[in-house]
Amino acid sequence: MLMRMTHRFRWLVVAIAVLSTPAGLRPSAQSAGPDRSAHVVLISLDGFTARALADPALPLPTLRRLAKDGATAKVMTPANPTVTWANHTSIISGVTPAKHGVIFNGLLVHEPGMPPKVEPWRDKAEMVHAPTLYDLAHAKGLTTAQVDWVAIWNAPTVTWEFRERPDPANPISREMVAARLVPQDDVDNFSSRNIVLRDRIWTDAAAHIITAHKPNLMMFHLLTLDSMQHRYGPDTLAAQETMAHLDAQVADIVEAVRRAGILDQTTFVIVSDHGFKRVKRLINPNVALAKAGLVQVTDDKATHADAWIVPEGGSALAYVTVPDADGAKLAQVRSAVAGLEGVDKVVEPADYASYGLPVPTVSDQMGPLFITAKPGYAFTAALGNALVTDATEGSFGAHGYVASDPELGAIFIASGRGIKAGVTLDSVRNIDVAPTLARLLGLELSNADGTVLTAILSGR
Asked: I want to staple 90 with a disulfide (CB 3.0 to 4.6 A). Which of 79, 228, 233, 460 is the partner?
């Protein structure tokens, strides 16, 4: 009898120990499978720089409270190229563009003898060539949601969504109109609305999905700050005011989680995709190609192009659009751009791996030259006569520079369920986000190149 009681007592001790460890972070979490009680809200504040978050003079009460109650990094290193879609895909997949293949804010489409074009509204399956966290979560029976996330068009593994350009027939759009959260006219004509209103509607959509549907994984992206910094430049009053406005929108999402009754079960992770640099001069490399006879121009439009350079702000990619077996056309491109004012480096495919970029033989999204700009300069696709011009309003800020540039550093805050309080890391990589969120959901993102940030997790 005593032996039986002792045996039962031991099992009781073990059970208490397991139950007292935060769900989703128990030692057996990966083998036990998904934690359906867990909720993760991933918020991306496009273009929010690490140096801005470190400025105590900026009024950011919500972000600072979340950081104080949880964990933060002094800087999160983005992926190359430091543009929105490439980095959001790295954040949610845990791999660099060398594996997931997203290089532009859309899919680069090639037509022989013409400039390549970036088409944003292409299916996720065409663009993203690596498993994502939302794919894994859906496969394991968890619910997923996205509001204004990118490279996610027609993704079958998203349970609820309110797109960057919302579909009026989508259930969430209909629910919001019925609840008078958004006028039908704003949904029908969303793309013509100003970015501040769009951010407000996206915030209302995320709050509605959280309160009405309680997804296990919510991915939410806001764009106003990116637009403001492109137009007026970083570290300006316009940028600072927008950051304060974003802080209030994050507070709205936290409040939605509280209203939904899942605050104690929710982890908030706030990130950005890249930082920003101030621009004083604009490089027009396709003018150089036209002067070299590689681009034919009529009325400032390219009517034929043997080669073309696609700008990404602080970097650009060169393409040869006609057969070039002997490499003569590419040699002309290299010669035309190498000496341009403001050009820093012309990187060859042999060095792409060190930048986390795929080589052209693996991905048709990559060109045979990756060109970087010096500080104060950014690339454009403009034609005309001027090789370099002064920046004007609308182009005073840019990203796309090499990810190691300190001004391109992004933000990282994690707070809530499963997160230690008072932890500050010197740096993290954005490819570490997805595997860490997977752990919080009781999953393992086995394909990721990033690692789980165990130093911020409680119960470890």
From this structure: 79
